Target: PH domain-containing protein
Amino acid sequence: MTAHTVVVNSEANARRIAMVESCFGSSGEPLWVPGRVLVGEGVLTKMCRKKPKARQFFLFNDILVYGNIVINKKKYNKQHIIPLEEVKLESLEDDGQFRNGWLIRTSTKSFAVYAATSTEKQEWMAHINKCIEDLLRKSK
Model:
């Protein structure tokens, strides 16, 4: 996971979000809203109908966005947006070739993702959980 220095209202943040938008092209939703910050990004392996596939994930302070990789770091499609206040994480035990995984659960869907290393798994889970905590704190 590439974690970004989180600076709200910074030009760098606005540029990063614009870049993510442009990588999805016209098929994606606009991602820039005031106060939204790109927290981190990286490639995770997502279980899709029993077959693992690499997906590009973007963690913002309020949503998790992922898509298919068409050209790495340049073009993605099939954008999915998951509001973080609905997300619950659940660590998965290593199982044969499936290691460093966790479940991303929402009321409508759940899926397993796997990081390349256990450090990366810990970083992703910690960053996502922190974003969720901050969101829930703000909404009280």
Observations:
- Residues 76 and 102 are 23 Å apart (CA to CA).
- The chain is about 25% helix and 40% strand.
